[in-house]
Design goal:
Helices cover 36% and strands 34% of the residues. With 110 residues, the chain is an alpha+beta fold. The longest helix is centred in the middle third of the chain and has 20 residues.
Length: 110
């Protein structure tokens, strides 16, 4: 199988001292006390999700799982914060004290 790469949009929000980091493209989320820890947990979740989708137990549902998206309100939030100036270009789109935006790629089938 030829390797494929997914571009994933990541939205991190801190509310009441807890960071929630969400992959908008697969509607996955993780929560922790710090952004770094929440992002690490999310990244592990994404890797497991993609593995199961292509090589694991969810192969038969891959078409549906590849198109599972977060609710519209989170996409609006992502692009709203980006428009407000959190965007800085490159992989890391921007961050503030309570928000963090990024675009990341994950390769599958390599």
């Amino acid at each position: 199988m030829k390797p494929k790469a997914f571009l994933l949009r990541i939205l991190g929000r801190q509310v009441n001292g807890q960071w929630t980091v969400m992959c908008l493209d697969f509607c996955l989320a993780a929560q922790a006390d710090t952004y770094v820890e929440a992002h690490r947990l999310l990244r592990a979740q994404i890797e497991s999700y993609v593995h199961d989708m292509f090589d694991g137990r969810d192969v038969e549902h891959a078409e549906h799982l590849m198109t599972r998206r977060a609710p519209l309100k989170y996409w609006i939030m992502f692009y709203w914060f980006r428009a407000l100036g959190l965007a800085s270009g490159g992989r890391k789109l921007g961050s503030s004290r309570s928000h963090h935006l990024s675009r990341e790629t994950i390769a599958v089938g390599a």
